[in-house]
Amino acid sequence: MKKLILALSLLFSPALIAEEAISILWNNLAPGPADLPVTENVNLELDGKKVIIPGFVVPLDGKNSGYTKNFLLTPQQGACFHKPPSPPNQLIHVSFDVPIAIPDLQQPMYIAGTLNVKSAQAGFAKTGYHIKGVEAIAYPVKINTADTADDHQH
Q: What is the largest CA-CA distance in the chain?
């Protein structure tokens, strides 16, 4: 009987029946024609969906401790507060309940969570999306940073 109860509890586990995340890329966030204003060129079909997307982290909490729970996710390496930001439909404000480890800001990460179409001012940039983060996963390949690391000064 105990085995039956255990089997049934695993069968109906929320983790097992949870909606699987959709893998998306940055072009999925701006599906319209190039002449469409960026504030209107957002993908409403992704609103409320669980997604996973690769990108570069720009911390907003200012601690520079290797951990953050509030950051921008951007498609390009080297984004920073002293450079012009990407358009809002190419910036995602990400928030986690607890700080996550960011081993190297020059390397991309996969961020998984629930995506919402939400225009907001996040730090120094206007964003078109928000992800309530549930997981951060290291990118499987190291990106060459020799050119950008030496040029990037505050």
A: 65
Does the CA dihedral 42-43-49-51 come out positive or negative?
negative
Strand positions, DSSP E, 6-143: 22-23, 49-59, 67-74, 92-101, 109-122, 125-138
Length of the chain: 154
The whole-number average pLDDT for the span 26-55 is 92
pTM of the model: 0.78
Tokens 């390496």 appear where?
Answer: 77
Give me the numbers of helices (H) and strands (E) for the chain, helices first please.
3, 6
Mapped onto helix, strand or coil, the DSSP state of residue 46 is helix
CA distance 30 to 38: 8
Contact partners, residue 15, CB within 8 Å, separation at least 6: none
| Residue 143, amino acid | I
